[in-house]
Protein 1
Amino acid sequence: MRVTGTGHASMRIDTGAGSILCDPWVNPAYFASWFPFPDNSLLDWETLGDVDYLYVSHLHRDHFDAAHLKRYVSKKATVLLPEFPTSEMEDEFRALGFTKFLKTRNEEVVELDGGLKIMIQALTSPTDGPIGDSSLWVEYDGVRLLNQNDARPTDLSTFAELGHVHAHMLQFSGAIWYPMVYELPQSAKTAFGKQKRDRQFDRTWRYIDDLKADHVFPIAGPPCFLDDELWQFNDIFGDEGNIFPDQSVFLAEYAKVGGTNGIVLLPGSVSEVTTSGATTTHPVPVEEFFANKVAHLEEMRERKRPIIEAEKASWRHPEIDVLKELKQRIEPLLDESIYLAKGVGGPVRFDLVGYDGESIESIVVDFPGKQVRPYADEKVRYRFRTERALVEHLLHIGEVDWVNSLFLSCRFSAARIGQYNEFVYAFFKCLSTERLQYAEGWYDEHERAVDAEDITLGDWVVQRRCPHLKADLSRFGIVDGDQLTCQLHGWRFDLPSGRCLTSVGHKVRAHRVGEETEVAQPTS
């Protein structure tokens, strides 16, 4: 099995029974904030895109690059579709000209022509990607590969049961806006960033240990930030709180925990994977490339500057009455929302900075009141500050997912009182009736689910499944004193009370070993 690195989470897999192109991303994403690094725009995409099969793990724009898919990927390719709850991915592919689809069933192995086998695991909670994320398992002639990209399954046993894996591709770096955009003292940002960076690596080590593949390939990150306004987010300043460590940092950290089987794929690297080993060639030496990372970034910044400026010039739409448009789009969704609106539990404020960089229009999305209105000097738990032009552009293009656009762009600042509230971001990911109804139904089923199985962790008996996204706490749970941490997403719980210390809701059922509880604590 030949694996060609094509940048970020993208790769081309070639076998004797066909080729699969995965997650090709080249064009800037999220308001021209994210670029692939190392740069992959100079690869021979005409050749790379001439494939038998196309797999895109999910609709995040650093995985689903519509312009690139339309121009460079053969429309004769069969699209391998995960079993997602909505038809959005298929609809987007059809709009780009793709006509051949294989609609997979979740965790069901499919044998394609020539003995090529594939299996896709779809994750379908409202917090998995933009309504869905997935991983691809491939087998040919006894060689097995798992492309986990940046999916976070509760465990990898489904793949391990299919046989020993020889190549494991997975995310290790950040893909979020926290804590960089929060209005906090720099010391706090550094501390929170270091915690997140450590959790990212801990989660990665846990997945690697679960699967025990012959070779581990760090992929799906980090992006690079080439706009001058965002340059500080690149991990080139020795900041231990930067959440975007690169592949060379991965190898160094992996070595600290005994990892010796890591393989980095630069764009153009080729790894020949067999049942007995892997031989990899690179366009340039990996160590040499990352030793010159700053120079590479500076060269990219100058070369991509016209692209960024052109994108910025397209964002302003002064003809749009933002308050009026937001009322028309969001208020009907607030009327339909039960779980998300209750979960947010209060007003969310947007401060929109005008073209002059000074004037501000403050608008509130009032979840309890089910309305969008001007800010009325009330206390809010969540506040976002961004350029008015960005929101104008979102309204102009009818964007249904502000997470997969505004928030991932990092072109905003945020402040909050109290704990993280996942429902805020879940709602702004679901600005369409189809998405909202799915999310409401998922939370309805999730909130009413009873998790009766318990496990013992240290001195505590706790429910086996994490109240957040049902991670198996026998694998991801760590107890330190009276606190439980689920390492899958870093959520923490106070065991004596069951209270979640990370977010609103999500109470855990727990009691000390040897103590009986008359009434089980609710899981939400």
Protein 2
Amino acid sequence: MAIVPRQHPARPETNVPNRPRSLDPQELGFTRKGPIGWLAPLLLLSTGLRAVLHLFFGAYLDKRELQNALDGDVFDHSTTATGELWLDYVADLGDGFDATYSVAYLLSQEELEVDGERLPRGRLLLMGGDQVYPLASGDGYENRMKGPYRAALPEAPAGVPRPTLFALPGNHDWYDGLTAFLRLFARRKDGHIGGWRTEQRRSYFAVKLPANWWLFAVDEQFGAYIDDPQLLYFEKAAEQVGPDDRVIIMTPSPTWVKAQDNPHAYDAVDYFIRTILAPTQAQVRVLVSGDLHHYARFSGEDRELITCGGGGAYTLGTQNLPDHIMVPPKETLTRSRSRSLRYDLRGTFPDAPTSRRMGWGVFHRIPRRNANFANLLGIIHTLTMLAMAGAASQGGNIQRLFSIPLVLMLVLIMAGTIAFAKPDGHARHWVLGVAHGLVQIAVAIGGTWVWLQLPFRDWPWPGPLAVAAFVYGPLIAIVSSQVVALYLLVAANFDVNLNELFAGQGIEDAKSFLRMHITPDGALTIHPIGVDRVCHDWVADPDGEPHAPWLRPATPLTAHGIEPPIRIN
């Protein structure tokens, strides 16, 4: 497999559109989208159905086998004028405009001053997965990822090599079987996103870096397995890797963390290291991933395991991360697994105390960010109240208890709360789901008792129905949504529905990305960069240079080091 050397094509100067003078979509060429309401009923249903379809039919939708017909190039970015290379890593970026563009704006700057040190823009931009939310589509990529990044770096800067973009698909990129992903990142020979050039031809890639460093980006497809054409591609790439080389591995998900609950989660990555890289005697020094929307670094005697999913999606707290992990986990059934080593938690962003404080915001953010979810709860509780009130007017106690409408509503509530807890064999999921359902039923009983004490039920029809719909429904929606918020806060302490605790809030702040530097002597320095507050007030810059961002923040964005630079000699 021949290495494809890095090229610097001439910058296209013809038919360059005028810089927008406002934030109007007609001028920007895309629509700025707000943060996704992750608890929206239709979104929950749609995402859940797609996840189920991939569970049962993922193999039929898997386009990785077909990629064997595409170019199998290994990309050479090892030769630079100074012998060094800067590269950036960002993941989980295609959500609301303000958070996504705040990170894109910082990545596009010629240099960043972080804690007194000037860090140049990366010659490579690595996107680690979930470039769009909630579902992959052409319009989704255009409005939530491509448009904002094109606005951040409209053209390649003059007089310097054009930066290159590589992207690895995450689970949300996979929901259409990679159709839109490949169309955007891998199909066109002259592909580019704004000033960044795209080179890859497949959903996975290998890149030769300066000073005997390599980058291997592995596409696991929902963590299921690594397909044979992909293994063959990396086997051929590994033929050029020697015992003095060091390797950075990109994966779509931090399986080293997830393997603590699911011991098989890390098996595919471990297999890749054992079968592809171990024969070369090269050292795997860094594993990096997104998927979990925070920054966390586990450090061991041989390598750094870094999660950095702060590119734009809702922030996920770090309070439940363990102090250390064993990788691979000793519980895995793989007989030929690598030797299990201990990795200690060294840095997080946001940190655990801040994450806990963020969690308490669930009470006001759930109903405010997820109005349709609260409305659904109000409808369910109103129907349950009407069924209970109707049953109360019937004959004996047994007849009341087994009223068909009432039974249906009670079953719906219990089934919904248990499913929401995602029972996966752990007793705590079932216990918390059932407890949540019983509390919601208790709220319904209390609401029915209050309803029966009021004169509304004796009004002529449709008076009671109108009062139930326009008075009782909105009030009980607020009460029941607060019950959900309380449940999420309690359940998160038992590591149940932690993701929903933060997804429901849609927190846009506490974003993060990595800026890495390979020096001529072979040292790698990783700068984890955090942004405490994203910008919500943007101003068009119609008179800027061609490569300058179309929009600039009304107040400067501030980036800082999450922890001291990580130096790997």
